[in-house]
Amino acid sequence: MIARRDGFAYEYVVVDLNTQFDFCSIGGRHPVSNLMELIPSLRRIIAWTKRNAVPVVSSITAHRKSEIAPGDTDACCIDGSVGQGKVGFTLLDKRKQVEIDNTLNLRLDLFRDYQQVLFRKRTDDLLANPKADRFLTQVPTREFIVIGNSVECSVKALTLGLVARGKAVTVIVDGCGFWDQGAADLTFRQLVAKGAMLATVDEVVCRKLANRKRYSPRMAEAFMQNEYLPRSQSNSVAKSDAAGRNGNGLVRNPARNGRSSK
Hints:
By secondary structure, the chain is α/β, with parallel strands linked by helices. The chain has 8 helices and 8 strands, in the order ββααβββαβαβαβααα.
């Protein structure tokens, strides 16, 4: 944290957008096209947040079943589905999920008790959630670091919203997923024109903060080999498919491969 005259401010707050199975799994409903390059980058960023105790705001895309048109096979992140869940390594131990209720009733000091605060959202724009808007607008930080999915939709909407609110925002180019390379490149240029900054994972993970947490080599290895599944699902999948990993270290979505835990 950095000192402020009226209290304190965080050096960085990482905003992790929609790192969910439907977008970040080879068996997901709508996986991003740069998935193979994205997952290792996300792992490095999350490891950096743990090592430096960086606060994290995460979004969870959530669509009601009633919103899905009959016969729509491309619908993703449906409430209660496996694909809606966040991938395991993006969930921190000390976390708090804030539900949507269209009110502004929210503790603004949640980072005093939790490292990760999760908000559900119904649209592409996280700031359309009143609680998320209030929290991100008022959290004291020198800089927001944005990662996740996707560049063309949620990353663009959030970054422009934060910049419009006078916030310093850095988008991690190789830490964001996209479906169309050309559209993503155009979006990055638009964000820079509006005042956002771009960086790479290598540039971010070399930043050292005052409050750092060191891991033994054994702990670091355990994190990198952690299941690519939420804890509630990892045991059942490991038994059925020996972790189900492919040659790239990714785990197939059990719901798309006939291994649902239901």
